Amino acid sequence: MKKIAKKIIKWAVHTKMLSFLRSSVVTILRDANLAIVRYDDAERSKVFDIIRKVKKENEMLLSDNEAYQVFMAVKRTKKINGDIAEVGSYRGGSAKLICEAMGNKTLHLFDTFEGLPGLSQHDNPKQFQKGNYSASLEDVKSYLRKYQNVHFYKGLFPTTADPIKNNDFSFVHLDLDLHKATLESLDFFYPRMNKGGVILSHDYISAPGVRKAFDNFFKDKPEPIIEMSGTQCLIVKL
User: Fold this and answer.
1) Is there a single domain that holds both residue 28 and residue 44?
2) Full residue range of the structural domain in which residue 21 is found
3) Which contacts of 56-61 are long-range, i.e. CB under 8 A and separated by 24 or more positions?
4) Does one domain contain both 189 and 74?
5) Quick one: pLDDT band at residue 21, thresholds 50, 70, 90?
6) Which CATH number do you get for residue 107?
7) Are residues 27 and 128 in the same domain?
8) In terms of CB atoms within 10 Å, which end of the chain has fewer, N or C?
9) Do residues 49 and 73 both lie within one domain?
């Protein structure tokens, strides 16, 4: 069977079939404004193994590429002093990626654990509704129980932020979907980010409220908003 498989692969490589299929796929992706991102490096493959494992264990709303970007942002900011925070932890999938990448840093996880709060005029009611993405705090704690230095805060941020008001940060992940929550999180974390620290947000491309919050907050700040592949954006504190 292995010999037959090798012969088929060899035939495909040396005929126009593979070239035709590749060309067809590229055309389809181009017409749909999609792209294939290759991560064929051995070290990168290990990160995707972690991502696939998390997705088998739990529901995570990040695409594989978005999850990779969270992981690498945490890993590359380990040399920056400060804690890590995530606001909008849902079921803990992205938090597990952060735990796998952060080494012995401290992680602070914030969520209502009752779903989204009410929407504002800047949010799209066809896209989000109050109560979406509810999760159990106890389930998330159980899921992340093997990791050290992880702290959980239930309630509406930033009313739950008093325990970290004197902390500084190297990395913050926002996945809040809505305008008011995103803007208030930026207002809290921006002055507490150490130089070189990163704020990465989900839904900047896809959620009008998130985009408006970032655009308005950073219009008078020196940091550029860096649009990333998928729906994310990123800023590096100058």
Assistant:
1) no
2) 1-36
3) 57/93, 57/96, 57/143, 58/91, 58/92, 58/93, 58/96, 58/143, 59/90, 59/91, 59/93, 60/90, 60/91, 60/93, 60/94, 61/90, 61/93, 61/133, 61/175, 61/202
4) yes
5) very low
6) 3.40.50.150
7) no
8) N
9) yes
Residue 218 main-chain phi, psi, to 5 deg: -95, 5
**161 touches 169 (CB < 8 A):** no
Residues 96 and 18 in one domain: no
Query: Which residues, in sequence order, are bridge partners of residue 152?
Result: 109
- Residue the block writes with tokens 């985009």: 211
Determine the pLDDT at residue 44. Answer: 87
Task: Report d(CA 157, CA 87) in Å as an integer.
Answer: 8
| This prediction's pTM | 0.86
For the chain, the domain total comes to 2
Is residue 27 predicted with pLDDT exceeding 90?
Answer: no
How does residue 28 score in pLDDT terms, banded at 50, 70 and 90? very low
One domain for residues 32 and 132: no
